[in-house]
Amino acid sequence: MTCKDCDKSIGYQQHKESMDSLGVELCARHTKLIKKVILDNNTPLEAIQLFYALKEVGANPMLEWWDGKKSVDIAISRVKLNIEIDKDYNMITHEQAINDLEEAMHSFKNGFTTIRIPHLAVKYYLEDTVQNILGIIAGLKANIKAI
Ligand SMILES: [Zn+2]
Questions:
Q1: For residue 113, how far is its CA from the centre of ligand 1 (angstroms)?
Q2: pLDDT tens digit sequence for 102-145
Q3: Fewer CB in 10 Å around end: N or C, the chain?
Q4: Domains of the chain from N-terminus onward
């Protein structure tokens, strides 16, 4: 068993602790670091899981990336892709809904693409979610070349 962040080998107890609390295999240091990120940014657990899944396939994701105005759950900077995890569609307020759209408009204007992924997609279809994001990255790369 190894830490998904630093490849340090970890014991059963640490494996269990990180899996139980974060759903990702991490060493004690990285479990602590990620828990601090969650506390500071209110990061959904699914963003953490998706971040490490994307890291594993070499997508070079960044967690809680500051775009100048707000923190983005996950960013893939070389194709200017921002990924936000939607926690609960049923809980969304009308103000939140229009704010999200406005934010998406501003990031498009700055050359960024923002996609919102429902947390349930990450929870139940992590592999498919990763594959789709890789497809989006490939599409964005092709578009960058075309310009
Ligand atoms: Zn580690």
A1: 30
A2: 988 888 898 999 999 999 999 999 999 999 999 999 999 998 87
A3: C
A4: 1-41 (no CATH), 43-146 (3.40.960.10)
Distance CA 120, CA 78 (A): 27
Query: Cα 25 to the chain's mean position, in Å?
Result: 16
Q: How far is the centre of ligand 1, averaged over its atoms, from the C-alpha of 49 (Å)?
A: 15
Residues lying with their CB under 5 A of ligand 1, a single-atom ion? 3, 5-6, 8, 27, 30
Q: How far is the CA of 1 from the centre of ligand 1 (A)?
A: 11
- Percent helix, strand, coil in the chain, to 5, is 60, 15, 25
Report long-range pairs for 132-139 (Cβ below 8 Å, ≥24 apart). Answer: 133/50, 133/54, 133/59, 133/76, 133/81, 133/83, 134/57, 134/59, 136/81, 137/59, 137/76, 137/79, 137/81
The structure's pTM equals 0.91
